[in-house]
């Protein structure tokens, strides 16, 4: 790996402070090839020269490594189990302790779809109740540009395919060709920059002390080498409240089971530490 990408890894570490060797080799090489194709560089040496001469290209390469794909209610079964089982059980638990707030961390939140999906669930959970369940969602991403999209909360109709018509009418307002999330969904979400592999922070500073009841870290782990997956999972486990839930992607079950997590409901991708 180092022999194949030696110059690139050194350049990105010096220029951007990012160790790209954290990423899975296949993913990293595909990202490099994509940038070479888009800049019409036929060999790596030509692309490396472009990096030296064009300061913007290093930003473009770094952006190509940021996992930006997300959807509203991406795994319907996951959100169904959250709605029907996890949230009610957490609400009962909160009724017996001093801290009543449900705390959720949406790690690698990308454009905010996951965070707003969670906000919809919790607002709907509170609807009609005499006493509302307090909640706070801490949404983080390494990319400031992704967070800009998330904070804005505006999406084209094609991005809302998993949203029911009822939710579309209740939680979005149409402005031209775009749909904007209503302000109520934003009230309990805090968006901030956070690098999951930054050794200086054990949890997002905005959350102060972590203690998360639910952590979403979906469709991210398989982009990293095993040793970095372990570092991310260790950080998450230290941030979680006792009995907290970790939610991943559908294809990451094996990774979680290899790290002493147990799925609480078959195929839900919702785990607890054993």
Describe, in short, the structure shown:
With 274 residues, the protein is an alpha/beta fold. The chain has 2 domains: 63 residues, no CATH class; 198 residues, Rossmann fold.
The strands making up the biggest β-sheet line up spatially as: 6-2-1-7-8-10-9
Tell me the major beta sheet. 7 strands, mixed
Number of helices: 11
Percent of residues in β-strands: 15-25%
Structural category: alpha/beta
What is the rounded Rg?
20 Å
> What is the CATH architecture descriptor of the largest domain?
3-Layer(aba) Sandwich
CATH superfamily of the largest domain: Vaccinia Virus protein VP39
CATH topology of the largest domain: Rossmann fold
Mean pLDDT score, rounded?
90
- Top CATH class of the largest domain: Alpha Beta
The total number of structural domains is 2
* pLDDT < 50 runs, ≥5 residues: none
Q: Which overall shape is indicated by the principal axes computed on the Cα atoms?
A: globular
Distance between the termini: 34 Å
Number of strands: 10
Secondary structure: helix percent: 40-55%
Query: What is the chain-wise order of helices and strands?
Result: HHHHHEHEHEHEEHEEHEHEE
């Amino acid at each position: 790996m180092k022999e194949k990408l030696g110059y690139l890894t050194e350049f990105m570490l010096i220029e951007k402070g990012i160790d790209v060797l954290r990423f899975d080799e296949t993913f990293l090489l595909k990202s490099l090839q994509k940038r070479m194709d888009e800049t019409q560089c036929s060999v790596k040496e030509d692309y490396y020269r472009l990096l030296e001469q064009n300061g913007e290209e290093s930003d473009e390469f770094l952006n190509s490594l940021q996992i930006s794909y997300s959807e509203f209610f991406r795994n319907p079964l996951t959100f169904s189990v959250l709605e029907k089982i996890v949230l009610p059980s957490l609400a009962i638990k909160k009724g017996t302790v001093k801290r009543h707030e449900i705390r959720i961390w949406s790690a690698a939140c990308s454009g905010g779809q996951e965070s707003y999906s969670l906000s919809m669930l919790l607002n709907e959970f509170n609807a009609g109740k005499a006493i509302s369940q307090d909640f706070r969602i801490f949404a983080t991403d390494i990319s400031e540009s992704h967070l800009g999209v998330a904070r804005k909360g505006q999406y084209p109709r094609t991005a809302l395919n998993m949203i029911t018509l009822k939710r579309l009418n209740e939680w979005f307002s149409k402005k031209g060709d775009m749909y904007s999330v209503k302000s109520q969904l934003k009230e309990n979400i805090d968006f901030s920059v956070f690098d999951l592999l930054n050794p200086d922070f054990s949890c997002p500073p905005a959350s102060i002390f972590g203690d998360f009841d639910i952590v979403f870290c979906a469709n991210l782990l398989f982009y990293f080498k095993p040793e970095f997956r372990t570092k991310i999972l260790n950080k998450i486990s230290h941030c979680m409240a006792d009995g907290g839930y970790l939610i991943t992607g559908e294809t990451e079950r094996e990774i979680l089971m290899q790290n002493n997590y147990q799925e609480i409901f078959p195929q839900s991708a919702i785990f607890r530490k054993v």
